[in-house]
Each structure stands twice: as structure tokens, then as C-alpha cells.
Amino acid sequence: MNLERFADGHLTRVTTDGSRVSLRLEAYAEYRRVPGEVSVVEVFELSADPADLEMAEPPSADHTVEEPSWSERDGLGTIEFFAPLRIRVTAAAFELTLLRTERRPVLPAPSANACTFDLAEIPTLGPDVVWRTYGGDAGTPADPDGWFLQRRDRLTTSRTGVFCATGANRVTFERHDADDELWRAVQLLGEHASQVRSGNCVFRPADWVAWVTDGTLPPVERLRP
């Protein structure tokens, strides 16, 4: 059985009824990422009766399926997915049924822990926030690429902070071990950028500040590249 079509899709549900095991799977016939565009999703049911199910916990519907695989041994077939933990079903025969095809508008999905600014120079955050290498003391980098921002009073209790990656007048920040106040201060540096990228969205600076401060998103057309 070829399961590759589900490699970038989702396993949304696993159900059992007696000896029957059923998996609800989604595969993209047309994948779109930009807010307001439309993805085409095929919804399948993969079932077997009788079947043996091994599952540490139910799948996460928003987790992209990883490493779908099929193997056969001694007249039995085994399907396996990671969604995010391993889910394995073994049976003599499987049935794959296309239930429906859906057109789904792509929703804005800013990242909670990463943002990229079109910015030539990183503004300072005051004397209480310092640069440091991984596990290092406070320093003054000539190039902050690969360094972290962290509160001065947390240098001995944390090895990281907010990671910084730079290049071509662009800087990306990723939250690792940083408190809410520090991460909010870093996010608000986006007001100095010409534009901000986060998740599948591209923000104007004022729209980004509104999102960070009160969770308000602008109209979808203002979030497209």
C-alpha cells in the first residue's frame, strides 16, 4: 500500500469498534499556505477488521503526519504513522476509502515563538537585557548571528534565551528559554522593521504591533506577501 500521499497530510482520528480499527486521514490534492488562498483536501478512511492497534496516545489533528510506512510479514500488513507519536495498525487486509473532497480557505497562522524582521540594525532593549552565546556570559557581538538575548539576572540559571539569526538586512528571533516579558519586548522590535514575517503571514509593522499587544489580526489581504 502506497501511503506517501499522506506524508504532508494529517491523521485526525483513530477509532475502534470491537475488532475494527479506523483511521481518518487527510491528504492535500492542492496545498496552499498563503492566508486567503484555498487548499483542496481529500478525506479518507483507512480501516481493517480484524486489526491490532498500537497507540501511545491519540493523534494530534494539527500535526503533520511523519514517516508513513507499510510493511508485510507472514501474511500480515502493518501501517505506521507518527502523529506525533507512533501509531501502528496490523491486519491481514486494509480498505482505503475516499470519503469526500473539501476546499478549505487558508487561515492566518502567526507563529507564537518565531518572527522575522526586515531590519538593518537591531535596537537595544535596555541595560537589563544582554547578548550571550550558548551558556555564556554577557557579551557584545560584532555580529549577533547565533547569539541569544537574555535577562542579565538569568545568565546563571539559563543557557539560552531568544535565539537570533541574521542575514541580508533580515533578522529572525526564536523563543527558547525566555519569559513572557522578554519575548514580548523582542516581538515589539518589529515596529522598527519594514515588514514582519511570522508563520504564514507577512505583517505591516503597525499590524504586527496590534497582533502582539492585543491579538488583533488585520484583514487577510494585508497578511499576504
Give a quick rundown of the structure.
With 225 residues, the protein is mainly beta. The protein has helices at residues 180-187, 205-214, and strands spanning 10-17, 20-30, 38-48, 52-55, 66-73, 76-82, 86-91, 95-105, 114-118, 129-132, 138-139, 148-151, 162-166, 170-175, 196-198, 201-203. The protein has two helices and 16 strands.
What is the rounded distance between the termini?
A: 39 Å
Radius of gyration: 23 Å
Order of helices and strands: EEEEEEEEEEEEEEHEEH
Roughly what fraction of the amino acids lie in strands? 35-45%
Helix/strand-derived class? mainly beta
How confident is the prediction overall: mean pLDDT?
Answer: 96
> What's the total helix number?
2
Helix share of residues?
under 10%
Major beta sheet summary: 8 strands, antiparallel
Low-confidence stretches: none
Oligomer category = single chain
Count of spatially separate domains: 2
Give the overall silhouette. elongated
Question: Numbering strands along the chain, what is their spatial order in the largest sheet?
Answer: 11-10-12-13-14-9-15-16
Number of strands: 16
Task: Describe the protein's architecture and organization.
The structure is a single chain. This protein has 225 residues and is mainly beta. The chain folds into two domains: 4-105, no CATH class; 114-214, no CATH class. Helix content is 8%, strand content 44%. It contains two helices and 16 strands. It has helices at 180-187, 205-214, and strands spanning 10-17, 20-30, 38-48, 52-55, 66-73, 76-82, 86-91, 95-105, 114-118, 129-132, 138-139, 148-151, 162-166, 170-175, 196-198, 201-203. The strands form three sheets. The protein has an eight-stranded antiparallel sheet. It has a four-stranded antiparallel sheet with strand order 1-2-3-8, with no helix packed on it. A hairpin with a 3-residue loop joins strand 13 and strand 14. The longest helix is centred in the last third of the chain and has 10 residues, at 205-214. It is elongated.
